[in-house]
Structure formats: structure tokens, C-alpha cells
Specification:
It contains 13 helices and 16 strands. The chain is of the alpha/beta class. The chain folds into 3 domains: about 150 residues, NAD(P)-binding Rossmann-like Domain (Rossmann fold), CATH 3.40.50.720; about 170 residues, Dihydrodipicolinate Reductase, domain 2 (2-Layer Sandwich), CATH 3.30.360.10; about 80 residues, ACT domain (Alpha-Beta Plaits). The chain has a 6-stranded parallel sheet with strand order 3-2-1-4-5-6, sandwiched between helices. Strand 5, helix 4 and strand 6 form a beta-alpha-beta unit. The structure holds NADP nicotinamide-adenine-dinucleotide phosphate. NADP nicotinamide-adenine-dinucleotide phosphate binds next to helix 1.
């Protein structure tokens, strides 16, 4: 029988208790986040929820003595789907078997809560349609920015506005590396090594450093906040591994620092198009984006009526992420099973992602010094219609490998790329020029 919120519920009843009977919860994936969720649910803080089952492969090695005695341990996903748990919490990660677990749980009449960004970014719409068809919820607050309630903020708290820009620092690993390069003068390689030792970075850091992790999160925010569906692969990613210590010195001269910025903005005056990217960028020191230290996350959201709002906090970690998961569980307990998923009907459909946005740029050249270099760069930039804003050269570098920087006035990225292709053919480069956009205080270009 379905558990429904009682119309006659007393105002004295504990918040979220559904008709007096708590909703039962099965956790699948007893790792960093799964353990934290179990810890919160075992604390007795939330009488509307009862932990009933924990599933993990090789479950014997996972058992702990601090969960309540009645909790069933299993390594069988089939047992979870066949159980009478009201809500399945998917915390295995990866596309499969997580996707299959979620589909079959929804078909079996269970609501689902997940932290799985890759799955939601890739198959979220299909899964939400399925949830809706079965009159169950699929909630995924923890999939973006861990403990920061940003999905609910853009979907519900700011639903009265027409949001047009979301910019954020959505990957704590990259932020840790960049802030250590900036603050302690570490090289990229040393900052990465340190992040790995401290457990902030995976042994294979590609998904973080090259932007794929943040791309999945910005795609979820594009759907949740800007109301459009994008193809994940259409969002360009650029790695932070091209950033060098010297870039932070030059960035400071420009009253900026460098962050991996995930960014999406409706194209002004163009229907069904937005610009989006995940890339390193110069951000003004006065900007909220510059003030995020270490492994923290931050998102700024801009709306037509309400202006800019900024959200920050722990973007990862078992306990902060567990809070997001349990808050989703409580939301289901409050509304009751059978509430409709309300995300799908708000989407305006598939939109194309433009990558040719206009912004000022920072370009770092590393050259074997000789007379006439600036003149030949200026000639080629000018031939492409690009205006130089400033030329910066700090003393103390080896002339055989001399870094210096040009900032250029706002131009389309395609124009700068074409100019840099020509410039790269010149004979004095020690390595390829490195260009990043210079963003405004709200992450705008
Ligand atoms: N960690 C964070 O800070 C964080 C933040 C936000 C979102 N998330 C998301 O939360 C999810 C879980 O992350 P996590 O950090 O907790 O990962 P984790 O520590 O690796 O835990 C995953 C757990 O799932 C189990 N598992 C994996 N595949 C399984 C399968 N096929 N059948 C049964 N059990 C399986 C693993 O078992 P083994 O022990 O055998 O590997 C492990 O116990 C991911 O989607 C992640 O992206 C994590």
C-alpha cells in the first residue's frame, strides 16, 4: 500500500512523518558517501526515515556494528529491487549497473535519490520521464557541488526568476590545485601530488583536471536552472594542466587570479542557444569566484529580476554530501510517495551550445628572446582585427625561455584561435602560446 501524507496530520506531529510510518530506505554503495548517509540515518535525527537495507558487492568486508540491528545487509541488487524499501539511494557511481538499478527501482514503485553526476548528466531526462510515468521521485541534489543545495536553489528557490547565467567552481580538486599554485607557489605537478596525498585527487586525475567532472555538473545545472537540455559532449573542456606558476604572477599584476570556471549563459537575443564551457579563466580578485579557497565550491546564478546570488560551501566529502542526500530523502518523506517529478515539463528542449563567445583574453607567450618579437605579434593580431590591451613582462627570467603576457580586448574566441594559429607558426616560440579568457566579477565574459 502506498504511504501518503495525511491531510489531517497534526501540527504537533514530527516534521516529515508520513501518516506516522517512516519511509524505508535502502542504500546501494557503502563507500565514502554511503557510510555517511547510513551514519546520519542511524543517528535517530530523522524519524520520517528508517534505514532498512545496505547493499554492496562483497558485503561481508563492509559490515559495521554501528548501524541499527534490524538493517539487512546484502550484496544482491535484485534483493534491493525486490525489497519493500520505499526509497533506493544509489551511491555506487558510474553509468552501470547504477542506471539499471535506478530504472528497475522506479519501475518497482520506489523513489530514488542519487549523487551520480555522470548518470544524471547523461541519462537524467530519460530517468526523470520514467520516474514521472511511475509517479515516483528521482532526486539528485548531491550530484552537483556536494553539500551546497544548488539544484534545489535554482529549481525552487529562484524559480520565480528567469535565470540567464550560471558560473561556478564545481570541482574542488582543481580549486585545491590552483589555490596551492597561487598561495604556495607550487608547480602544477607538485600541487597535484599534494592533492593526491591528501585524498582530494584520484590516482588518475583526468576527469577533474581536464574538466569532465565539472562538465557533468554544469550540464545538470543548465537543465535545472536554465531549463534547457544540452548534449554533454557539446560543452568544451580545457585542462588546467596548461597553467604555470608564472601565470599567477601575471594574473596578480592584473588584479586577478586563475580558477577552473564552469560557465553557462543564454545567448542574448538568440532562441535555443546558450554558451557554455569548463576552462581555466582569469577572474578578478574582487569576484566571489576568486575567494573560494582549497577544495570548496561556489556557484553564482544570475536572473533577469533578482540579480546575482552566490552559494558556497563543501562541494564534496562524505558528510556534506550525505546531508544533501538525506535532505532529498526528507523532501520525499514530506511530499509523500506518489508525488510527481516536476523537472521534465519545465525544460524547453534540446538547445545548441555555442562555443564562440566574446571576451577579453590573457595570452602567455614563452619565447627565445630576440628583437622584433612584440612587433611581429602585434602585426599578426592586428591583421585579425584584435586590439592589444597591455603587454606585461616580469624581470628575472631566462632569455632563452622568456615568458611574457599580452592581454587583448574583447574578441570572439574563434578570431583569437585563428590569430594564435598564425602566431604559433612564428619561429621564436619555446612552447605554444597559452590563452585563457578574462571573466568579469560575476563570471561573465
Ligand atoms: N565522495 C564525494 O565526496 C562525493 C561527492 C558528491 C558526489 N559523489 C558521488 O557519490 C557516488 C558515490 O561516491 P563515493 O565517493 O562514495 O564512492 P566510493 O567511496 O567509491 O563508494 C562506492 C561504493 O559502491 C560500491 N560499488 C561499486 N560498484 C558496485 C556494484 N556494481 N555493486 C555493488 N556495490 C558497488 C563500492 O564497493 P567497493 O568497496 O567494492 O569498491 C563502494 O563501496 C558517486 O556517484 C560520486 O560521484 C561523491
Amino acid at each position: 500500500m502506498q504511504k501518503q501524507k495525511s491531510d489531517t496530520a497534526s501540527l504537533d506531529a514530527p516534521e516529515g512523518v508520513v501518516g506516522g510510518a517512516p519511509l524505508t530506505v535502502a542504500i546501494v554503495g557503502f563507500g565514502t558517501v554511503g557510510r555517511s548517509v547510513a551514519k546520519v540515518l542511524s543517528s535517530g535525527m530523522h524519524p520520517s526515515l528508517r534505514l532498512a537495507m545496505i547493499c554492496n558487492r562483497g558485503v561481508e568486508r563492509k559490515k559495521v556494528d554501528w548501524v541499527p540491528r534490524g538493517v539487512e545487509w546484502t550484496e544482491s541488487i535484485e534483493a534491493v529491487i525486490g525489497s519493500d524499501a520505499d526509497i533506493v539511494v544509489e551511491l555506487m557511481g558510474g553509468l552501470e549497473p547504477a542506471g539499471e538499478l535506478i530504472r528497475r527501482s522506479l519501475q518497482a514503485g520506489k523513489s530514488v535519490v542519487t549523487a551520480n553526476k555522470q548518470l544524471i548528466a547523461t541519462h537524467g531526462i530519460e530517468l526523470l520521464v520514467l520516474a514521472r510515468r511511475h509517479k515516483r521521485e528521482l532526486l539528485f541534489e548531491a550530484s552537483v557541488a556536494g553539500g551546497i543545495p544548488i539544484v534545489r536553489a535554482v529549481r525552487e528557490g529562484l524559480a520565480g526568476d528567469r535565470l540567464f547565467r550560471i558560473a561556478g567552481i564545481l570541482n574542488g580538486t582543481c580549486n585545491y590545485i590552483l589555490t596551492r599554485m597561487d598561495g604556495a607557489g607550487l608547480s602544477f605537478a607538485d600541487a597535484l601530488k599534494e592533492a593526491q596525498v591528501l585524498g582530494y585527487a584520484e590516482a588518475d586525475p583526468t576527469a577533474d583536471v581536464d574538466g569532465y567532472d565539472a562538465r557533468a555538473k554544469i550540464a545538470i545545472l543548465i537543465a535545472s536552472g536554465l531549463g534547457c537540455q544540452v548534449n554533454l559532449d557539446d560543452i568544451p573542456c580545457r585542462s588546467i594542466s596548461s597553467i604555470n606558476n608564472v601565470d599567477f604572477m601575471y594574473a596578480r599584476r592584473l588584479d586577478c587570479t586563475i580558477r577552473q570556471v564552469s560557465w553557462a549563459e543564454r545567448a542574448p537575443g538568440v532562441d535555443r542557444q546558450l554558451f557554455a564551457s569548463v576552462r581555466p579563466a582569469l577572474v578578478p580578485l574582487s569576484s566571489p569566484l576568486a575567494r573560494v579557497e582549497g577544495s570548496q565550491n561556489l556557484v553564482t546564478v544570475q536572473g533577469e529580476f533578482g540579480g546575482a546570488n552566490t552559494f558556497s560551501g563543501f562541494g564534496a566529502g562524505g558528510d556534506p554530501t550525505a546531508v544533501a542526500i538525506v535532505s532529498d530523502l526528507m523532501s520525499i518523506a514530506r511530499t509523500g510517495l506518489g508525488a510527481e517529478a516536476h523537472f521534465v515539463q519545465q525544460l524547453e528542449g534540446q538547445v545548441s551550445v555555442g562555443t564562440d563567445f566574446t571576451s577579453p583574453h590573457y595570452v602567455r607567450f614563452t619565447v627565445a628572446d630576440r628583437p622584433g618579437i612584440i612587433a611581429s605579434l602585434a602585426t599578426l593580431l592586428s591583421a585579425h582585427g584584435i586590439n592589444i590591451d597591455a603587454v606585461l613582462q616580469l624581470p628575472g627570467h631566462d632569455k632563452a625561455e622568456l615568458p611574457f603576457v599580452m592581454t587583448v580586448e574583447a574578441c570572439p574566441l574563434s578570431v583569437l584561435d585563428a590569430a594564435l594559429a598564425d602566431i604559433n607558426a612564428l619561429p621564436f616560440h619555446v612552447c605554444r602560446p597559452m590563452a585563457v579568457p578574462i571573466l568579469g566579477a560575476q563570471g561573465n565574459s
